């Protein structure tokens, strides 16, 4: 299996679904940081979730899911673009238990941001973090925001991350029991099946008595949007006095991207050009 997102439809019903499997994409993210297993699996589930959710809307921007809390895990943020790229990171401050979200995040909240890009207005929804699992918390978000009935199944381990999404579309319901039936069958899915089965096998396992139309898959990949130019703009926004102070103390200004761990270094000449010309100069980019 490759890193792919597939859409499918249960014919003659109002039920649509998506399946995503992340292999190389997930490994590319894990190469950058060593996460404890519990944190790693939460991050993998979140990454699969944003890949699924971003595919339900048509846009060229990005969808960002952020979870913050007062517990052992204090930050989880993942992003998916309209072009099939994803990135993410997590931060923790003590041993993370394998319990529910309340044990892992404490008193938390979940923020969903849709940025359509091109300077258009952002949409942001904020809800308390509730539910035993990340999938339950996301389902609660959809219920609170009165969006389409949505269910998610998410799984991750040290090798793969995967997810399944079902939605009931609006309109004339030709089969009123179809969504409930599809969800009941999907609830029998085990994590290992979600992680290991190809989409054709998984859909046959769940819906062999239904007429399923599987659409062509689309690729998903890890990609970070950081660049030297963006870091230069951030330094300009920070202001010359602050940057000069760092330069005096450290002899150089170094910035590491938290998502991909790429490093950007500016020496005294770079900083001078940055503020006199307004454009970040060419220079070194390192990966740590």
Automatic annotation (TrEMBL):
Principal location: cytoplasm
CDD domains membership: Hsp33 (cd00498)
Compartment list: Cytoplasm
Cysteines joined through disulfide linkages: 224-226, 257-260
UniProt keywords, alphabetically: Chaperone, Cytoplasm, Disulfide bond, Redox-active center, Zinc
GO cellular component: cytoplasm
Molecular functions per Gene Ontology: protein folding chaperone; unfolded protein binding
Keyword Zinc: yes
Range of residues in the leader sequence: none
Residues that span the membrane, as ranges: none
Any one GO BP annotation for this protein: protein refolding
Source superkingdom: Bacteria
Pfam families: HSP33 (PF01430)
The record's account of how the chain is modified after translation: Under oxidizing conditions two disulfide bonds are formed involving the reactive cysteines. Under reducing conditions zinc is bound to the reactive cysteines and the protein is inactive.
NCBIfam families linked to this entry: PRK00114.1
Reported function: Redox regulated molecular chaperone. Protects both thermally unfolding and oxidatively damaged proteins from irreversible aggregation. Plays an important role in the bacterial defense system toward oxidative stress.
Family membership: Belongs to the HSP33 family.
Protein known as: 33 kDa chaperonin
Organism (species): Thioalkalivibrio sulfidiphilus (strain HL-EbGR7)
